[in-house]
Structure formats: C-alpha cells, structure tokens
Amino acid sequence: MLKKLRHIAIMVDDFEKAVNQFKGFGLDCSEIKEDKRIDLLAGFLSIGGTSIEILHHTKPDTGDDHISSIVRGQKGAVNHLCFEVDDLDASIREFEKNGAKMIEGCPRPGAHGRIAFFYPETTAGVLIELCEL
Fold first, then answer.
1. How far apart are CA 53 and CA 46, in angstroms?
2. Closest CA to 8 of 82, 74, 73
3. pLDDT by residue (tens digit) across 114-131?
4. Is there a cis peptide before residue 107, judged by omega within 30 degrees of 0?
5. Are 124 and 109 within 8 A, CB to CB?
6. What is the dotted CATH code of the domain comprising 2-132?
C-alpha cells in the first residue's frame, strides 16, 4: 500500500529563517506553496527521493478548518509523516481496518494530489498523512 515516504513535515515559527537554515545545510528549496484558505506557507526541500516540508501558519488558528487545527496542535520537532500511495481510497480502508481514524474533512486536495490525515492517537502518536498524486 505505501509506496514511499513522501515528506517529513516540520512546523516552524519563522518560515524564512528555517528555509535559509536548511539551505545552509545543503538542501535546496525546490518549491514554495501558499494555501490562503488555511493561512499556510509550505516550503519543500528535496533530499534523495523524499523531501522536508517546512510549514508555517501566517495567522492564528480560527478553528474554522478542523484538519488545520489538528495539524497545528501536533507539537514537536516533526509535525507529521507523509506517505505516498497508489490508491488513496484503498489505503484509507486498510488504515481504518487496522484501527486508524481519519480526520473529518478528509480526503481532500492537498499541496500535491489528494490527501488524508489520521488522528495521531490512532496511529501510535504520530500524525500521518497519505498522499495520492
């Protein structure tokens, strides 16, 4: 079901500082996307077959988007792991069959393809995103 680790996401307070620091470590920022719906900046720094996604919310949480509120609430150095899948619907069924609970509002369009997030308390404490390109 899982093809590969697509990205590891890190939530930061200062987007430009974090991107520049990772550039200093030798990673190039291949893409920056902005999602004005949820006031989110995302920078993708490629390494090998995966990337590091730098996330920064440009405004405080309004509580209007349930998924955004869950993602914002996931504290720590690593925000979430994203796995690429061939068939998102089949992968969701497999995850749910194994006790994972999908966050309301998923699946939905993401920065790259369709995505689904699962509540961390149902996935060993890790916020997991599945992505179908």
1. 9
2. 82
3. 999 999 999 988 999 999
4. yes
5. no
6. 3.10.180.10
Q: What angle do CA 64, 68, 74 make, to 5 degrees?
A: 135
3-state secondary structure of 27: coil
Cβ distance 46 to 61 under 8 Å?
Answer: no
- In the numeric block, the tokens 């869950």 are attached to 70
- Tokens 């996401």 correspond to 9
Q: Which residues, including other chains, have CB under 8 Å from residue 119's CB and lie 6 or more apart?
A: 70, 100, 101, 102, 103
Q: What is the pTM of this model?
A: 0.87
Q: Where are the domains of the chain?
A: 2-132
Cα separation, 10 vs 2, whole angstroms: 21
Tens-place pLDDT, residues 91-107 = 999 999 999 999 999 99
In this prediction, residue 4 carries a pLDDT of 95
At residue 20, the 3 state secondary structure works out as helix
**What residue type is assigned to position 86 of the chain?**
D
